[in-house]
Write the structure tokens for this entry.
Amino acid sequence: MRFEMKMPDLATTDSAIRVVRWLIEPGQKIERGKPLLEVETDKATMEVESVVSGVLQEVKADINDEVSVGQIIAVLEIAERVGPSPAPALQAAPSPSPAAQTSAALSPAVPSPAASRPKGMFARNRGAAAAPSTAQNASIPLSVAHRTAAKRLQESKQTVPHFYLQTSFNAAAVIARRDAAGPSKPAWDAFFVQAVARAIEKFDRFGYRFDGERLAKIETGAIGVAIDHEGELYVVPAAAPAAKTIEQISAEIRGNVAALKCGDPEMRRIRPALMTVTNLGVCNVESFIPIINPPEAAILGIGKVRSTPVVRADGKIGVEHRATLTLSVDHRVVSGRYAGEFLGTLVKELEDPKP
């Protein structure tokens, strides 16, 4: 008999629910309790399980469609009439195992679990589904994650009184440290994450956020790393990096990026950090001014390393490998002098990286 499955109440968010992908295709069998489709909200990516056993006959929501609670999303053929169905189970999209994360940290290209599925109509990966041709479409639909990031950054720019400080640092020590590591070079961002975390230990005001008539402590020791994945902005954490080695931080960043690419909902979740670092040096960008990621009090923008003529203390001209640092700061939390001293300490940490 025909069974119409409806979108359950996720009970986690009031935001829109977007269909990311169908995990089986029409004509295939599915058991009750098995994942039927994957959806996305502004909080996480989740799998929706089938509440009955049967054969999927028809899908009522395409990839990238927004659906509401109670809306019919699929039609299944079942063997017999079923009684009242229990509340459909929801689970977060599967996270990579620790072994998979270790492997991912060593390899920049980790296939998603969906990559092994047949490339049928409903098994297309998210990237293909989310990249419509502008030649054929009058507009480009935005994902829930994209809209959430846009809203947060617009509010930040409109409500947070930013000010900006810029300097440069000699990258020779960082380059030498990476070269000494051989083929398994640590990630560039690991050096900035460690330096920021250690500088914040000396300038703890950067660990607070503006909260009306007071400054509230940000309850985390993590430093965030901005990541662009399939055209969308995410921030992955490096937990308590001040006490870790460069190699440990690098492995954590790479492991978290690999998990993000595998669809791990934990890596897609919005979470607070003490500060975010964002690096566009790989894009050949010399300097840029980033927007603060609320509720953080600052964000550090990093430009590319380039050969720069400098006048040394003895008056002679030399060439150094230097990169520009731009610190965007919330003036409600930190003063200009305080931020300037923080930036100077950050330069010292980078020019003398610790083990």
